[in-house]
Design a protein that fits this description.
This protein has 2 helices and 4 strands, in the order H-E-E-E-E-H. The chain is α+β, with helices and mostly antiparallel strands. The longest helix has 37 residues, at 99-135.
Length: 136
């Protein structure tokens, strides 16, 4: 595999993980949001899915975001009768965002991003060593 192909693969993975980090940040930012009225639904957690795509020009299998979808798991119900968005029984719906799961997802995306950044750095070092060898 040539260096440009490995750089393309790493760059596509870094873009995909960057999108994943943005979605995780949105989920965390909305973890405690509720609807404005009793009939409004709260924020629904978003999930990123990836796919492998063949780049016909280079023959490399690149990573890209296939879709960002809503997580269909149940909302959390809490009894808060004084809350503005409480229903007739006094329950408020909260988003289906688990901060611990989001933090683990963020950490995994961060490590994947860093691993791909290391591949880019190593490829750059190999190019520099090749240029140095050609000079002598």
């Amino acid at each position: 595999m040539d260096l440009m192909k490995s750089l393309d693969i790493s760059a596509s993975a870094m873009r995909a993980q960057g999108t994943r980090l943005r979605i995780v940040a949105e989920n965390l930012a909305n973890a405690n949001s509720t609807g404005e009225t009793p009939n409004d639904m709260p924020y629904r957690r978003q999930v990123v899915s990836f796919e492998s795509v063949l780049d016909r020009a280079t023959g490399a299998h690149l990573v890209q975001v296939a879709d960002v979808t809503a997580d269909d798991s149940a909302f959390t119900r809490k009894y808060e009768p004084g809350h503005p968005s409480a229903d007739a029984e006094g329950y408020v719906l909260y988003p289906n965002v688990n901060s611990l799961v989001e933090m683990m997802d963020m950490r995994e995306a961060q490590r994947s991003y860093e691993a791909n950044l290391s591949v880019v750095d190593i490829a750059k070092q190999m190019v520099m060593k090749t240029i140095d060898m050609l000079r002598t």
